[in-house]
Amino acid sequence: MKKSISFITLLGISFTLNVFLPGRTAAGTGEGAETYKAKCVACHGSDGSGNTPLGQKMKVRDLRSPDVQKQTDDELSAIIANGKPPMPGYGKSLGPEKIHDLVAYLRSIAAKS
Ligand code: HEC
Q1: 10-19, 30-39, 53-62, 97-106: range with lowest mean pLDDT
Q2: Dihedral angle, C-alpha 3, 76, 68, 27, nearest 10 °
Q3: How far is the CA of 70 from the centre of ligand 1 (A)?
Q4: Fewest Cβ atoms nearer than 10 Å: which of 29, 31, 53, 68?
Q5: Does the C-beta of 8 come closer than 6 Å to ligand 1?
Q6: For the chain, what are the domain ranges?
Q7: What is the spatial distance between Cα 12 and Cα 8, in angstroms, rounded to a whole number?
Q8: Is the CATH number 1.10.760.10 carried by domain 2-112?
């Protein structure tokens, strides 16, 4: 529990840095797209629909859907960091900054559909 609180704090700090450091704004979805391709497509599909054999087996929700998108950035970051069984958590392997970029990427694929 203590661990996840300090993680949220880190996320907050990284978010603040991203907002106040010029040249590193919300447009930083490029890296998010790469991380997504490397770690997430097997279950969530390249378009986020979850239309993959694994995704269908696990009944993942469409990441572009309003049900998923209505959650705040903090909530989505926490799911990615801590996992949502059977999805593994990525807090340790990716760290707050990459997770921030992933959330930005998820917002970008939603906006397009
Ligand atoms: C082993 C398969 C698997 C992998 C890999 C995986 N996920 Fe998931 N993901 C799931 C499952 C299962 C759920 C829970 C079911 C659901 O809510 O869609 C989930 C839920 C989520 C949710 C919450 C959706 C909701 O319902 O609110 C987000 C956001 C998400 N995953 C993002 C990611 C990201 C980003 C990655 C890559 C870093 C990733 N997932 C990798 C299987 C996976």
Answers
A1: 10-19
A2: -170
A3: 15
A4: 53
A5: no
A6: 2-112
A7: 6
A8: yes
The pTM assigned to this predicted structure is: 0.80
Please compute the mean of the pLDDT values over residues 28-56 and round it to a whole number: 93
The two three-digit tokens of residue 67, written as one number: 């049900």
Q: Is the pLDDT of residue 17 over 70?
A: no
d(CA 88, CA 17): 27
Which residue's alpha carbon is nearest to atom 5 within ligand 1?
Answer: 40
Q: Is 109 in the pocket of ligand 1 (CB under 6 A)?
A: no
Token digits of residue 106 = 């998820």
Return the structure tokens found at 95: 């760290």
pLDDT digits (tens, 9 = 90+) for 45-94: 999 999 999 999 999 999 999 999 999 999 999 999 999 999 999 999 99
